[in-house]
Amino acid sequence: MEKLSWVEISKSALQNNIIQFRNIITAHTILCPCIKANAYGHGLVETAGIFLNSGADWLSVNALYEAKSLRQHGINCPVYILGYVPLKDIAEAIDLDCTLVVYDYDTINMIGETAKHSSRTVRVHVKVETGTNRQGIEPDKLLNFVQYIKKFKNIGVEGLSTHFANIEGTTDHSHAELQLRRFNKASAELEASGLHIPLKHCANSAAAIIFPETRFQMIRPGISCYGMWPSNETREYYTEKIQGNFHLTPAFTWKTKITQIKTVPKGEYIGYGCTYKTTHNTRLAVLPVGYYDGYDRGISGGHVLVHGEKAPIRGRICMNIIMVEITDIPEAKTEDEVILIGKDGNEAISAEQVAEWADTINYEVTTRVNDRIPRILVE
Ligand SMILES: Cc1ncc(COP(=O)(O)O)c(C=O)c1O
């Protein structure tokens, strides 16, 4: 069946980004790319294989269904589930040999009870709250919690983790520094009580790239494994202060085709809400993509690329359709390819550019592209 839109994923770009991370960490540091949210929209299983072949050691996902899909596709590396696993699903997570994040007694009790019937030692990573105030156990409860887990013979406390709240969207890193101090203190308190946890980790992309002291024994970068900077602030900080050799290559190209071309007379409205009125006879191309596919409805001032030229969006983004002006691209015809995100000749539309039009961040732009749209690996 003909596709109405599709995403091409550059294998070499993904490989390059993993190599970039491999180059900034020691050989002993575990590289655990974050491939939740359909690998940030890049295709879970396809991306997993490329990352592992390029130097990744582990993979991290958000939910059990993602871990299950990796196992079903024969991926046997350690898979760390970052998000909540419902108590009734713990047995399945253990069966799939997943590594689990823990921060509450109910989960530990369920793992302990379930693991009794398994020959496995279940590996858990304790998440400590250091200032993001979402998932994690408070530092003053950490020691008792770890001591409690240690009583279960079939549970191994392999990791201690935390997550930064404000490391990418700012050049003021004081909150991240505070979190790092709290993390180090929590870890030192455990050590002082004779509780050594081998893998400490807290670094997302921004932390791993610009703060070597956050890398510890493992890093969990997400966005930059796909070739995107976490923010302009991180890119600028890296360029100005670190001036290293770390280069990212975006891997994501979203394409569609023109389904209809028409000329709309001057003074006519285009689309729902009559938000755009033509100022001249307008050659219009209709594209079979809309907000259902993940193209943000809030975008009005953006453009797409047709024959390597900018074709401005006219009128509102519909559920399944976008209208663009091609008056100045006379060679455009029905079924010609259109770039929604990506490069064409000298022009390019980055995820960051689309994020700016939609008043959001690059993370949301690629993860929002509907999973139903095919991801095709290209060299
Ligand atoms: C717990 C955790 N670790 C790592 C990451 C990766 O972060 P980034 O994509 O900023 O590198 C995320 C992403 O949200 C996360 O939630």
Features:
379 residues; alpha/beta; TIM Barrel; 2 domains; 23% strand; binds pyridoxal-5'-phosphate
In words, what does this structure look like?
The protein is built from twelve helices and 20 strands. Strands 2-9-8-7-6-5-4-3 form an eight-stranded parallel β-sheet. Strands 1, 10, 15, 16, 18, 19 and 20 form a seven-stranded mixed β-sheet that branches. A three-stranded antiparallel β-sheet has the order 11-14-17, with no helix packed on it. It folds into two domains: 232 residues, Alpha-Beta Barrel (TIM Barrel); 127 residues, Lyase, Ornithine Decarboxylase, Chain A, domain 1 (Beta Barrel), CATH 2.40.37.10. It starts with a strand and ends with a strand. It is α/β, with parallel strands linked by helices. The model has no long low-confidence stretch (mean pLDDT 97).
Low-confidence stretches: none
The quaternary structure here is single chain
Q: What is the CATH superfamily classification of the largest domain?
A: Alanine racemase
State the helical fraction: 25-40%
Radius of gyration: 24 Å
Please tell me the total number of domains. 2
Question: How is the topology of this model organized?
Answer:
Layout: E1 5-10, H1 11-24, E2 30-31, H2 36-40, H3 44-54, E3 59-61, H4 64-72, E4 79-81, H5 90-95, E5 98-102, H6 105-115, E6 122-127, H7 139-150, E7 155-161, H8 174-192, E8 199-203, H9 205-210, E9 218-219, H10 232-242, E10 252-257, E11 260-264, E12 269-270, E13 276-277, E14 282-287, E15 303-306, E16 309-312, E17 322-325, E18 337-344, E19 347-349, H11 351-358, H12 362-367, E20 375-378
Parallel strand pairs: 1-20, 2-9, 3-4, 4-5, 5-6, 6-7, 7-8, 8-9
Antiparallel strand pairs: 1-10, 10-18, 11-14, 12-13, 14-17, 15-16, 15-18, 18-19
Helix pairs in contact: 1-3, 7-8
Bound molecules: pyridoxal-5'-phosphate.
